[in-house]
Design goal:
mainly alpha; 16 helices
Length: about 425
């Protein structure tokens, strides 16, 4: 329980830092510039997810269960990460940039070209940080999570205050620097722990790639589900519309980060547990997540107009209704995160592929139909419908494929209360 509370407190700090970064981008760039910066980030980060081949999940899995020595995990993940990063940069330079940024301002194209350097930082940063998480080094892992947003905010604010510069390019440089530093620190921590290795070997690489690829397809499709709306908005609407939508999504998903944070702790715990006790571990963390999200989502819906106007600025106040609609799709995100976690913990990730592909098809059809006719509200409606459909289908798969009782996973127990009070008591003592 202490690990959960530490991660939740870290998430609170991370949300505050990300909130500051989002506010700075909105106030300094305004809706049009904010939309252009989102467009510049969109394809480089998308490519990073496309080529990572599930290495981060594989490293976490084998670090948590100890099936491979740490030095072999490090060495093979390092060189695999370098290889796929080079492939990603090539795809971005020769494919994505000419196709996705045709007709956009030259500054946006140059910012996107610069942000291709995020690809190796993103991939290797995730690999090294997941190694720390797999070995339950949660203190430094949480510190690294905070550092990315913190460095970004300091870089943006520093350039603005010292040189009075706030452009799409300056924000892109700050975002790149914010990725480089945590990557180097995470690598150094892994080496200092005695896990550093430099010689890859085929058997270990095969195991990492085999596990990662089983998860990768569903991860990629899930990522595309979260970005296809921005892609269609970028192609069909003005940059200012994308700026409004990105801010609305950022605000609506503040509570969704609670689910993601608890799932980050639940995954290594579930991987390390034996088969008989694994459902109890997953159910405990799922119930905690749903309770936290239900308690926070309603308040956020009430405060959305005030938050947008006071924090992001009057230019973003018109996104209030958009936020309220998007919040309807937040709860199913928690259910989906834990369904995905469950299949990964049971090494049955291939079962996720059909759900993710079906969800992407539904999302694409709805967006293609609704965005041209209804603009941003159409994108929000597609967001909600797709998330609920995916969560319900994955819940059915958990029961039919793994034989787990959904009611048992969702039903609160007396032990939940005892664990919570014991965790709070331990925290107070410290």
């Amino acid at each position: 329980m202490r690990a959960i509370l530490l991660t939740l407190f870290t998430t609170g700090g991370l949300q505050a830092i990300n909130l500051i970064g989002s506010i700075l981008a909105a106030r300094l760039l305004l809706p049009e510039g904010r939309g252009e910066f989102a467009a510049a980030m969109l394809w480089p980060t998308t490519i990073a997810y496309l080529v990572v081949i599930g290495l981060n999940d594989a490293v976490m899995f084998f670090s948590a269960n100890g099936r491979l020595p740490a030095r072999r995990v490090f060495a093979n993940a390092l060189w695999l990460g370098v290889a796929v990063s080079l492939i990603g940069i090539g795809l971005g330079w020769w494919v994505a940039l000419p196709l996705a940024y045709d007709g956009m301002r030259s500054e946006v194209v140059e910012a996107a070209r610069l942000l291709l350097l995020i690809i190796p930082c993103h991939i290797l940063g995730m690999v090294f940080q997941e190694m720390l998480r797999g070995h339950m080094r949660l203190g430094v892992w949480n510190a690294l999570r905070l550092s990315l947003g913190g460095v970004y905010v300091l870089a943006v604010a520093g350039v603005w205050l010292l040189f009075d510069i706030a452009t799409v390019t300056s924000f892109a440089v700050a975002w790149l620097v914010a990725h480089i530093i945590p990557t180097l620190v995470a690598a150094a921590l892994c080496v200092a722990a005695g896990w550093g290795g430099w010689r890859p070997d085929r058997p270990a690489s095969t195991e990492l790639v085999s596990y990662g690829l089983k998860i990768h397809t569903s991860n990629v499709v899930g990522m595309m589900n979260g970005r296809v709306d921005q892609m269609l908005i970028q192609q069909n609407l003005a940059p200012a519309a994308l700026g409004l939508y990105v801010v609305a999504v950022n605000l609506a998903q503040l509570t969704a980060t609670l689910a993601n944070s608890v799932a980050m702790i639940a995954f290594p715990r579930a991987c390390a547990a034996d088969v008989d006790s694994r459902p109890a571990v997953i159910g405990l963390y799922l119930r905690l997540t749903l309770g936290l999200m239900l308690a926070t989502t309603g308040g956020l819906a009430l405060l959305a107009p005030l938050a947008l106007s006071l924090l992001w600025g009057p230019a973003f106040a018109e996104a209030s209704d958009l936020v309220r609609v998007l919040l309807l799709g937040v709860i199913p995100l928690a259910l989906k995160d834990f369904a995905v976690l469950t299949f990964k913990a049971y090494d049955r990730a291939l079962a996720l592929n059909q759900a993710e592909v079906a969800s992407l098809i539904l999302n694409g059809v709805l967006l293609w139909w609704l965005v041209p006719a209804h603009g941003l509200m159409g994108a929000a409606i597609a967001y909600v419908v797709t998330r609920w459909a995916a969560a319900l289908y994955l819940g059915w798969l958990v029961r039919s494929t793994l034989g787990l009782s959904l009611s048992a996973l969702l039903r609160p127990t007396r032990a939940d209360w005892h664990r919570l009070t014991a965790g709070l008591a331990t925290l107070r003592q410290r």
